[in-house]
Amino acid sequence: MVEIFRDIVVNLNFANGGWRYIVMWLIGGLLIYLAIKKDMEPTLLLPLGFGTIMVNLPLSGAIGEEGALTTLFEAGIANELFPLILFIGIGAMIDFGPVLSNPKLMIFGAAAQFGIFFTFCLASLFFDTPDAASIGIIGAADGPTAIVVAQKLKSNYTGAIMVAAYSYMALVPIIQPPVIKALTTKKERLIRMPYKGKSISKTTRILFPIIITIIAGLVAPSSVALVGFLMFGNLIRECGVLNSLSDTAQKVLANLVTIFLGITIATQMEATKFLQLQTLLILGLGLFAFIFDTAGGVLFAKFLNLFLKEKINPMIGAAGISAFPMSGRVVHKMGLKEDPQNFLLMHSIGVNVSGQIASVIAGGLILSFFM
Q1: N or C, which end of the chain is more exposed by having fewer CB within 10 Å?
Q2: What is the pLDDT of residue 226?
Q3: Tens-place pLDDT, residues 111-152
Q4: What is the CA radius of gyration of the chain?
């Protein structure tokens, strides 16, 4: 036992930075706590937290040339395979009915992406262009898109970008409400928006993902894989002849790939890579982008209200970020808290799915500009 304890002390080597392992264990523990105790995206945060502990054990066999996690990273993230497969599952979950019945909701998805480009300009003061462009995408709260952009642009900070993007996705219920409240009055939050959903034909639902893929491909060719996999998942849902496959994509496939993503991203959270000043700066810029995107959607809705007779509840603008469906639910819950009879779910989800499309196209535009 004495020899084992001595080997542990030698491997940790606290005098030469071994304390970093302890810090990363605490970070991993915090992620696990948020997943279990706070029920914050447990499918993602639990494997990410546990993986963080695994890769920060001295001489860990989980990483390295023969490490299982490193092998998974090379097979699924280094080539963007996992994020793209996950998009199939996300696409199968999305019901575009609210957007198709009220197409003007799509403009909120676009408005909530301004933070991406503003943060890119700010990040350019501290990082090279590929890194700055990758950091800007964090604001969309779209983990798969952030991974693909960072990998394709060969960012030097892919690990920190991945962690920031997925962490802020999970922290939507904490980050967004204070921003929304700060930018709206109680009177604005009480605005009711009766849902006037129209019956959408099956033909329209089938044509929509096909047309969006074509348009996105013509506008931003680099977005074809991102948009295409998302819309293919939706086509599986809407075609009506692949119901069992749609159910599998929504549940088994999406959950399985999310687990693999979480535990595999942890390979980028080694203490020597993660505990750097640049990482803290990236986390700060990512949070700025996230807040700015949220604010952009809310302020755009308030601007439109200056000209509209039938007012929009500006809270729904915040759902234009890509954190689907968390952001839409957060806005709905905030509406119910202000007025138990104010059901904003269909409107907020409509804006939320628009943001999913917009963030993917924004990622494709960034790739087109800087690849």
Answers
A1: N
A2: 85
A3: 777 778 888 888 888 888 888 888 888 877 777 888 888 888
A4: 21
Q: In terms of residues, how long is the chain? A: 371
* Short-list 212, 206, 251, CA closest to 229: 212
Q: What is the pTM of this model?
A: 0.82
Ranges under pLDDT 50 in the chain: 14-15
Contact 115, 141 (CB under 8 A): no
Among candidates 256, 280, 269, which has minimal Cα distance to 28?
Answer: 269
Gap between the Cα atoms of 233 and 95, Å rounded? 11
